[in-house]
Amino acid sequence: MIPQGNHMAQSVRELQRELYRSAKSNPKRSFYTLHDKIYRLDVLVCSWKQVCANHGAPGIDGITIEQIKEQGEEAFLGQVQKELESGSYRSNKTKRVEIPKPKGGIRILGVPTIKDRLVQTATRLVIEPIFEADFQECSFGFRPKRSAVHASLSIYKWLNYGLTQVLDIDLKRYFDSIPHDKLMKVIQKRISDRYVLKLIQAWLRSGVLKGEEVATRQGSPQGSPISPLLSNIYLNLLDTVWVKRMTERNGWNAQIVRYADDLVIVSNKPVEKILGILCGYLQRLGLSINEEKSRMTTAEEGFNFLGYAFKRGYSPRYQKPVTHMYPTPDAIKRIIKKVTQLTYRNRLHESVETIVKDLNASLLGWTEYYRHTASSRRFRKVQGHANRRLRRFIMKKKGSRKNGYKELPDEKLHKVYKLVNVGAYRVRYRWT
């Protein structure tokens, strides 16, 4: 059995705080003794718990998490610790999987072996605080204590500040286009531990595509535990130069809000010139924008970002323009489709308690994402659909063809069957 208790996680947090404070107090410091921290038992245990929590398919060696648990987690962690301490650890090739995107195109996922996932997670836990000290406030994706919710609130704030000219940008194949040489130069400014640098370089260059080995010189495919951090490290170059040169300067205020490779720029002036400046910065980084998915617009016309719709218009109630933020139509369709799937006829053999548990999990997850938006009407639509589907499911399970409105009113669904009421979880602002 691996060690249990909160003391392991607490010691890792203390290590991270120490590294963060040291990096923050000295922006030019380069850390050269990190190798020994990666194979610390507390770091490996916390990393293993994260790997197990994320589940995931086996890598190229076919070994699963369940097999490792059967053979002994403690022995596995001990072996990895010895390999890291002695320097004998070698990364495996990464299994590449092509996933079709809903709206066309292919997303390449990298599936490392379980051992590589463990070591990558341990490395991320150690080096992430160092780079967090350098990251800008405008970055929200794949960062501790930051989320798409925070990104949406940032956009909402800037729109209310009058930055209503919008540049909605999608980077073209960003995760597949990161130049390894340029990325490593950025990393070397903060990390001088040769062993750690070799680890990162090995993970970047390894790859398997459709069973054939491929040597990669660019890109950090999505799917590996360390890839999101590496992508943020590289795009922080854009964030930093933008914050220094493009915000509140000569009457021109152009604020950037970035979530991984999706970003929005809101400005108090037309964005045509801003687009040219942005493309120039990206070109220096070896990147480009996806012209098909990027566009210039205004808050009055409206735009979508991370599943949120933003639109600014005049409010007769407040006698002034206000910004509205709400779930996109696609987001509504997806949750309604999910509710329908969870209550299909082919699940009639399952208990009502199981169905309600699954419904509540999906509804609460969706509600948590959108609870801060002005969405009372949309929440009622989702809740109404969930009520109807569960009511119909219960009546079918009883063998009745009735709609069940009299036998199963909404109040009974919530109080007796414990179906969640999504409206109760909304954050109610004065304008909603």
Question: What do you see in this structure?
Answer:
The protein has 432 residues and is an alpha+beta fold. The chain has a domain at 328-425. It is built from 16 helices and eleven strands. The protein has helices spanning 6-25, 35-38, 41-54, 65-71, 73-86, 114-132, 148-160, 174-177, 180-188, 194-205, 227-245, 272-284, 329-342, 352-370, 376-397, 410-415; strands at residues 95-100, 106-111, 165-170, 208-209, 212-213, 254-259, 262-267, 295-298, 303-305, 308-315, 320-327. It has a four-stranded mixed sheet, with no helix packed on it. Strands 6-7-3-8 form a four-stranded antiparallel sheet, with helices on both faces. A three-stranded antiparallel sheet has the order 9-10-11. A hairpin with a 5-residue loop joins strand 1 and strand 2. Helix 13 packs antiparallel against helix 14. 33% of the residues are buried. The model has no long low-confidence stretch (mean pLDDT 91).
Provide a quick synopsis of the model.
The chain has 432 residues and is an alpha+beta fold. The protein has helices at 6-25, 35-38, 41-54, 65-71, 73-86, 114-132, 148-160, 174-177, 180-188, 194-205, 227-245, 272-284, 329-342, 352-370, 376-397, 410-415; strands at residues 95-100, 106-111, 165-170, 208-209, 212-213, 254-259, 262-267, 295-298, 303-305, 308-315, 320-327.
**Alpha-beta content class:** alpha+beta
Number of helices: 16
Poorly predicted runs: none
Beta percentage is 5-15%
Order of helices and strands: HHHHHEEHHEHHHEEHEEHEEEEHHHH
